[in-house]
Design a protein that fits this description.
Distance between the termini: 38 Å
Strand order of the largest sheet: 1-2-3-8
Number of strands: 10
Strand content: 5-15%
Length: about 260
């Protein structure tokens, strides 16, 4: 009997209880405060959920006495971004300007620490856990109603016959449909199950490099598909910092997992 449990990732004891009761073969960790701009309003909660929540999960995994594949989903924003235009690869330095990015970079350090301290790949036969992190972001697709996300914002404006306000028209992001990174996480989980030592590492999932759009181009495309509508740049005084340029190198996932984005 499958059962859905809605609970707080910061409730450590409850998390341990549910995890041990369920006895999972695979864990995909998505629980997060996922919004950059909201992280400026609730920085401490963002760090608690994204960083301590990840530590709570991995600590609970220590209590599991069976084989388990664990994928911690972080974000494409975990890299220290000087906006040079170079696509980030998995060995680049972690960092974060805004509390969201920093909390996710900190989560990556937590993952690495637990992997080295408790789930070292060389000692797999003792602990039987394979731990990896997956870095993707700027995902679009059905079911997303979050504030300050471009496609829901476009939809809300167009469906109410309002002008679309865009904060950063020239920003470039690795846009991708949600099914693409999800297929990446499943490919990674499968590979980890087959070879739990080799694939216990980090992977970027994103679009092909030539397939890049600015925010403005994405909005123009949406208006064209919708059939009408207009947009204007939003000039905000004292707006919180958001990175202008972000590109991911996905060669590692392509080479090691034979994964490719299916949609342009």
């Amino acid at each position: 009997k499958h059962q859905s449990v809605i609970a707080d990732i910061l409730d450590k004891k409850r998390l341990e209880k549910e995890l041990l009761q369920f006895q999972p073969d695979f864990i995909l960790h998505f629980a997060a405060q996922p919004l950059v701009r909201k992280s400026y309003d609730i920085p401490v909660e963002t760090f608690e959920v994204n960083t301590i929540g990840t530590a709570n999960l991995l600590d609970a995994v220590r209590l599991l006495k069976k084989e388990c594949v664990v994928i911690i989903v972080t974000t494409d924003k975990v890299y220290e971004n000087s906006e040079t235009g170079k696509p980030f690869n998995e060995n680049d330095k972690l960092g974060g300007h805004d509390p969201y990015s920093a909390s996710k970079a900190a989560a990556e350090i937590v993952v690495d620490s637990f992997r080295l301290s408790f789930f070292h790949p060389s000692k797999y036969k003792l602990h039987k856990k394979s731990i990896a992190s997956a870095r993707a972001g700027n995902v679009i697709g059905g079911g997303d109603y979050a504030t300050d996300r471009i496609v829901p914002d476009i939809y809300r404006a167009l469906s109410n016959s309002k002008t679309i306000s865009i904060r950063n028209p020239k920003s470039i992001r690795p846009w991708q449909h949600v099914l693409d990174p999800l297929s990446g996480y499943l490919s990674l989980a499968e590979a980890m199950k087959i070879d739990p030592q080799k694939f216990a590492t980090s992977y970027n999932f994103g679009p092909k490099l030539k397939d890049e759009l600015t925010v403005e181009e994405l909005v123009q495309l949406a208006i064209k598909r919708w059939g009408n509508g207009k947009y204007k740049p939003m000039h905000m005084k004292n707006a919180p910092h958001e990175a202008g340029l972000l590109k991911l190198n996905i060669e590692k996932a392509q080479n090691e997992l034979a994964w490719e984005p299916k949609w342009n």
